Amino acid sequence: KFEEPDETMKKLLIVTLHISIGIVGMFTIGCASILSESNYPVTFRSNPNQADIIITNKSGREIFRGKTPATVTLPAGDGFFKGARYDVTASKNGYQESKGALTPDVDEWYIGNILFGGLVGILIVDPLTGAMYELPPEFTINLTKIDDGQPLSLKSGVVHISDLPENLRSKLIPLK
User: Fold this and answer.
1) What is the pLDDT of residues 4-25, one digit of tens each?
2) Burial category of 78 from C-beta neighbours within 10 Å (exposed 0-12, middle 13-18, buried 19 and up)
3) ω before 136 within 30° of 0 (cis)?
4) Cα 167 from Cα 84, distance rounded (Å)
């Protein structure tokens, strides 16, 4: 036969339940998952401005196509214990196409798991959610102006003819 617990026993059960929930919570959540983000808005800029950009993920899938400046929200993680990688291609008339890679850093809050005892946060939660990584708020890509057909200066150095664009090869003047 089940007996109704007395008032002291009820209070002890409630306190034990609260402590148990606190302990379980401390070991099943990750610092970075709580105090940080998994997705970050990144502003893409170029020098000069108004360049066409294409952003692809590491598997080559196009994530964004537009003009700079542009703010794109991107996940920092790409699978369990894998940081995302984004390839950025920028182009503009009169400039050479330029490429760059955006990669995340380890989020400082991820290290907080060590201090606050979040073993599950270190090994499971933050790596799974991608919160163990963070992306920078800005990414700038520089474009180089294409020579407009003027003779190459001596500062340009020696280049092999095969390294010149086709439109410049036709403008070469033989030395006599």
Assistant:
1) 667 776 677 676 765 654 554 4
2) middle
3) no
4) 38
